[in-house]
Amino acid sequence: MKKKIISIIVTTASILASAAALSWGGMIDDNTKLAANNDFSAVVLNQSNGIYLNINSNLNEAATLRFSGEGLYKYELNCNFDADESSLTNILDVDLLKLSGDWTIGQGHLGLALGRFKFSDFSGAVFSQLSDGLYLSYDTLKIKTSLYAGYTGLLNRLDVSMTENEYEDGDQLYALCPKYVPLLADFSYKKLFESHTIGGQIAAYIPVTDENTLKLYGTLIANGYLGSKASYDARFTFGTEKFESLMMDLMLDANFYLRSDVRLTAGAEYVSGDQGSINPFQTLSSRSFGNAPFVNGLIVPKFAVLYAAGKVYAGATERMIICMMEDETVLDGFDTTINVLYNIFSDLQIGLDAGAYICKENSEFTNFYATLKAVLAF
Fold it and tell me: How much is the pTM?
């Protein structure tokens, strides 16, 4: 089965790529992460190297129809020095295989994407990952509407993080993800008071087998500019599993542009937990709040600063993790992340990610990490 899938992908890519002038490239990356517990008595090394090859081609002279693809091989080495344990996982994947088009029709543009590509729902929290599917959109100056239908069962769970992934010891190269059919439809009006957008989306994630659960969501969004120096982004998502539960996620961010190269963000997110008639918020794609060991039943205020100029990108984010339990609400801890990227040359980039979760309620949840990154393009 796996060999047939890979053979079909490679054959399709070859046929499409030969239809017109072809451009190609690639990159090699390295990620070396050290993580430690609260007293540094347990240190874990996660090290990964990968090679990525990509191809792109216009399929007609007007460049309205295009093909793009990318394949990768990487390994992930995990070493727990305290337990004297290690594991090595080899991963082979096609993380992009897309036929895309863009045509002018009437006062707007009709967009098409077919194949394997990254897709995100309006919330950015429920479903934000690689997926196989069909995306259609119609975009004008005032409105945008789109439809998406896909399938997750052919994705590689070694390379795609879903909440219901079941890992087995010894999995190598390619292991299939949970089988869902995502169906999404949305509509946005982009000219409310000239500079504001409002919209809504409905989404259904239909399980193919009894091992998984039907999930339904509705999302409302609003975003826009507040003068020339500020903007906002608000999203409210409610959902249910098999019509038997009610769960919610609410996010609000305000952005302040101090200079052309500096942005400040202040915001907060509410993620429902087990509180009376409200249930824990469940997602399809895995998510996290930095290094905090919680994904729902939370109020998460945050403050972030971003600097981007020339060859340097730097950002820092501070989150407060407030846990909502059945009988009380407590400030559990503080999550800090720092990210720095530096483009040494146009084809060589290095970076550092560092962070810590300082837990006030239980010091055993306190942890630290640092990740060195390097990317060489060719």
Answer: 0.90
